[in-house]
Amino acid sequence: MLRRGSILILAIFFLFVVELLAFAFVNLIPTEMNSAGRTRLSVAGRLVAEAGLEYAVAWMENELARGREPTSVARPQAVLTRPVQDWVWKVTIEPDSQTPPKGSSNQRVYFLTSEASQRPGGKVYARLRCSFGQESFAAYTRFVDRWPAGTWVAAGPSQIRGRFHTNDVLRVQVYPGFYTAHDPDWPKGPTFMGQVTAAGRANTPDGVQYRADGSDPAPYLAKGALKAARYEAIYKGGRSGVQTGVAKIPMPLGPSLQSLAESAWGGVPAPSKDDTVYFNSGGGIYVSGSLSGLELRAPAGLSVQLLDTALGPVKVVEVHQGLYTTPSGTRVSAGSTVIEGPGAREQVRAALPNGVVFVEGNITGLKGTNRGPHTLVSRNNIVLAEHASLWCADAPRPAKYDPDNLPISNGANPLGLVCSHLVVPPYPHEGEDLFLFAAIICSNGGSGNLVVEDRDDASHGGAKLVLVGSLVEDSRTYWGSTQVRAGYGAVLLSDKHLGGSPPPNFPSTNHFKLVQAVFDVL
């Protein structure tokens, strides 16, 4: 009896424990359900907020492509809102201090706040706060808007070490024997050493046109099967290294030049044509006529520009460090600018220019070494001095191009060139390479390009035109011959600093990239 009674007591005890657990579980169910509900709302809210951001970025890019500013004096904040099934997102767009209408920077930055709620004006369940920066054209090592018939990228003799984009169909010339035995004079590695994108698409398996004389040029079989080794010989990363049919990126046109001109004026009305060289403390250097010569010099602590104007030589000295003594004996401290000439005229300004030098006419005889951030702009052409490289201060100066020892800048002295045509004069010295450290845009609304004169002269002995930076052109054409095996061989190297820190007021694309993001769960 005692044993049976103890078993009954134990049974009642365990029944009581199970009842307590069941009671606790029943009480826990609403809590877990509430937690699951909050998680669902949070996840759904974030997805809706992200959808709002994607729409807002696409809207900003479309506004710029149409020549309109996303924000203006009349609309200092842009507010977009849309329903998404049972949800509503609301995005507020605000410019930073340098972005129109607050500033005049060509590299716009916007702060976007996207909120997700289940009804307009209702409780916000998720909030995304992001900043988006406009991508500079300087981020592209090679950019071509269109390719006229008969123009091709040469696989082998030329090499592009960085991002490549064209708004046209990409055409690649493949030389006989390219896939089996490289010419020892050709660069090592694939022709395209960075990501390749093309807005156009040919009727081929990969959307690229290939051509060769007397051999099979394509890196794919007739039915589209890949020839992996051939792709890797042309594109870094093989087939994944090229994408066709992507969105077009509009070239910078007249409004970009006008913005650069206004940045040189310093936000004031255009100076009179009587002022050959004009410097406003809030802007850059403005030249009303043409320059028959422009030389850049980079002595320690100084940036010097020697301008040959119609009225005589003008010397612009930017004092970045230390002291500078003018010809008249005046000692000028750092953070100041001195303009000397023509004649004995001398001006001292207690400010540094913003780096933009805008010339209404041509710039000829350009040469030298750049110190500090500068963008040289001509409404017409920029012509290099004969046999004159453009160097960057604090960057190495190799005598010859060496693919195993590439010249790299430190990013502190970016030089931008914006013009209709950049002209390289005939090269008089056999076998000597020409180096250009610069981000270059050649655009005049259709035919702007890099011009290499007498490019068909084989007496150059295989001299190379080595660009360390960026080349953006309206059209891939040349004055003179386009024979790729004679004259200059082009080597384009990316400058990893230019995309994030481009030259001052250098034109930007209509695309935005994410700079920073913060997600709030509310």
Structure description:
By secondary structure, this protein is of the alpha/beta class. It has 3 domains: 27-135 and 514-520; 146-244, no CATH class; 254-314 and 352-462 and 477-506, no CATH class. It is built from 3 helices and 33 strands. Strands 5, 7, 8, 10, 12, 13, 14, 22, 24, 27, 29, 31 and 32 form a 13-stranded mixed sheet that branches. The radius of gyration is 31 Å and the shape is globular. The model is unreliable at 480-487 (pLDDT under 50).
Supply the key terms.
single chain; 522 residues; alpha/beta; 13-stranded mixed β-sheet; ten-stranded mixed β-sheet; 3 helices; 33 strands; 16% helix; globular
Low-confidence stretches: 480-487
CA radius of gyration is 31 Å
N-to-C terminal Cα separation, in Å?
63 Å
- How would you describe the shape? globular
Share in helix = 10-25%
Biggest sheet: strands, sense, closure? Answer: 13 strands, mixed
Give the DSSP E fraction (strand runs of 2 or more residues). 35-45%
Give me the secondary-structure category.
Answer: alpha/beta
Oligomer type: single chain
The average pLDDT is 83
- Give the total of domains: 3
Number of helices: 3
Number of strands: 33
Structure at a glance:
This protein is an alpha/beta fold and 522 residues long. A hairpin with a 5-residue loop joins strand 18 (323-325) and strand 19 (331-333). The radius of gyration is 31 Å and the shape is globular.
